[in-house]
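Thread: quick sanity check before group meeting

JM: Hey all, I'm pulling together slides for Thursday and realized we never actually wrote out the predicted structure for the chain we discussed last week. Dropping the sequence here so it's in one place. If anyone has concerns about the input, flag it before I start.
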Amino acid sequence: MRNKDFFVGLLENKLSECRDQVVSQWRNPEQTATRHFVIDGLLPDEICRKIYEAFPRDGNGFFDRESFREKKRTSANLDSYDPILSDITYAFQDPRIVRHVSELLGFRDIEPDPQLYAGGLSMMFQGDFLNPHIDNSHDAERQRYRRLNLLYYVSPDWRVENGGNFELWDDKRTIPKTLTSRFNRLVVMETNKSSWHSVSPVVAKMPRCCVSNYYFSAVSPDATEYFHVTSFSGRPGESLKSVVGVLDNAVRNAVSKAFKVGRGKNLVRKPNDQ
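JM (edit): ok, ran it. Output follows.
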């Protein structure tokens, strides 16, 4: 049986091996202002395949999100599945990996999120999508700013024509940079006020599976205090969704500020679940 420390060792080795590649990508983002990097072949293929096979094929037990904003299934209830899913998820949160990533990117005081607020497991099926959006600015308790998204894709033989691909947008949200949700690929992106990203509609009949983690910091990305909920817009040509999105974002932001509520807070992983 695999364990978290086993994965931590593999991740440390890969991050060290790809150091120059990671730093170069991070410092020189192309087609988008959002800093990010990609590592292919993160783990041995046979191990990545075992992670994929541990996902429930039908998304059983996952929470359904479906609206004009998005359509996907998520779960932070890792104890319901093969331990390999918990092991790989929390390997990304191990202090050794957090420190390694922080040093590569020049970040300070970065912390993981054991509660898995908006993190954990994600599955998208045919017709699922995620419209352009910027992530919620804070963690569940609003004590720390969200700074990094770490997305590990594990669906075998995933091709760009399958859809379900990760997209980073230019400043005007007119042209996306498409990153295929390729098998055994890690994508890490910065989160701030303008880091618009999305997932194209899934076309394939197989599930697109992802292990998600987020790193936080008490210091905001631009050293100013701010707060916003996850804020959505439409794609180019979806003018109605864009207009509705502006109104929807404003209402949810006002409600969240006034009543300190937020979507997904009831889905976080409790301390006794870890």
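AS: nice. The chain has a mean pLDDT of 92. Residues 239-259 form the longest helix (21 residues).
JM: adding both to the slides.
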